[in-house]
Amino acid sequence: MKKITYIIAIATVFVATSCSDYLDSENLYGKNSENFYKTPTDITEAMSGVYNAIYLPNAMSEEQMAANLLDNVMLGGGGPDDKAAKWVDNFEDPLEDTYRDMWVQSYYGITRANAIIDKTPAADFSKYFTTKEEAENFKKQAIGEALFMRAFFNFRLAKFFGGVPLINSLDADRTVARASYTDTFAQIATDLKAAIESLPATPFPSIPTSSYGHANKWVAEAYMARVYLFYTGYMTNIEQKATTDLPLVGGGKLGATEVTAYLNDCMTNSGHALVSDFRNLWPYSYVNKSAGKTVLPWAATENLSWAGQDGVTPTFGTGNKETMFVQRFSFGDWQWSNGPMYTNRLALFTGMRDNSLVPFATGWGMGTVSPKLWNNWADADPRKVGSIIQVGKAEQGTDGYKGDKGDHETGYFNKKYTPIQHPNAANSNVGMFVQMYKWGNTDMQLMHAQDFIFMRYADVLLMHSEITKTATGMNAVRSRAGLPAVAYSLDAIKEERLHELAFEGIHWYDLVRWGDVATAFNDSYPVRNSGKDATYSVKYRAETKGLMPIPETEIRLSNGVYTQNPGW
User: Fold this and answer.
1) Cβ atoms of residues 231 and 249 within 8 Å
2) What is the pTM for the complete model shown?
3) CA atoms within 13 A on the CB side of 362
4) Per-residue pLDDT tens for 219-251?
5) Chain centroid to CA 447: how far?
6) Which of 25, 263, 294, 372 is deepest in the core (most CB within 10 A)?
């Protein structure tokens, strides 16, 4: 059973506080920053704490949820009382702390990563391994992984908030002001460079399944390209300070040549590759015949076969070489604190509201899909129907759809991340992952174990084309979709990224870095709002520069050290 063990490392108890005397109480664990980080088990536990910081209690604060709602191809949706989704969609923050969980958890992750970065170099792991080389490789892996994760969290913060306080060691001043945008990205790039140099060049097919979901050299190289494109695009098109270089701490820089070299290394040596069919990346392609019948005729007719989400030797599926870095999800439980945050709430919240069909189960109906995207997407591209649920279609299993259940209904929903259910042996419709992993709790809010993909190889190819201004990578992605080759142009790469990466939490950032946000929100659509005809329209506020508000609670706690972003 794919059941992720979430270890909140003992170490995180003491590294997440800023003062050693914060609590005048007995340490019942017998562990502290001086006697921890001494064994491989210590490091493994500490690293679990780092990854745990990806998960957020507030779903609207999750990067993938917020970035999709902010995007111009997704509407707010939900029910009449689902106001938070509509606020995010409308560039509003009446609660003043919508994104606080992202801020707080990111700094938990940074602090926990700092502890590994600071403490691991002095540790001697030789007695735990057969050779000194093995011990040294373990150390380099741990440090490199922690450096990547610190960059990951800082990048998450920077995309949303701009320049942020840089906390780079356990004993760093935690009252510092926000760094400049340039200095923030210099730290991110420097950490990624160090991670790339520290992490082993193990081809992906040789990485054990037990390490699936962890960062590695190839992920770090791919993220360097994403950071490069975002920073140079943002500075050029939003700040109007044109640049083609990504800064490093100390005055160095990385240009297109250096970043391309990282991508070339990834493409040549990583072992990652595109799966044969784009649609096989998503759980709806899993044609489950265990109930004695084909549960999704369309998937069977199209000869789809789910690649799975556990690497090249998955528990279920045919093997997935394309997915590079994910947020792993398991099942939640109401009996433990914040249990629901360990399930995929993007799937839950964007599923069709109050409709329980096969294969598409019920959700909250948020993030309905823009009809403009559907209408402008060529029918010849299989990714269109592979990415969007169209209601009222028997071949899709949606002919039983009942409308007027929520707001911003357009007749289109996200298909990549949506609840999937199949009939079980008793002919009851039960969630796909519940059946696969024999989960006893069928609560519709707790049963979404689909991984969220942060990075996949298709994006590596598209980023390579955009940076080099060549069509090879882009056309490889198009070829996988059965589409003819095209010449490189920025417009072509924009369209290709939209169609390949729709609803994966990436397109919003593309709009920002390209400077397209100023014109991307000028459309209006007819929608149904809980049974009533309405018109949907969202206006981007240019004064925000594509940034979200610093949580007001954090501003107050800083005693005025933090300043609010423009427009908020």
Assistant:
1) no
2) 0.94
3) 15
4) 999 999 999 999 999 999 999 999 999 999 999
5) 19
6) 263
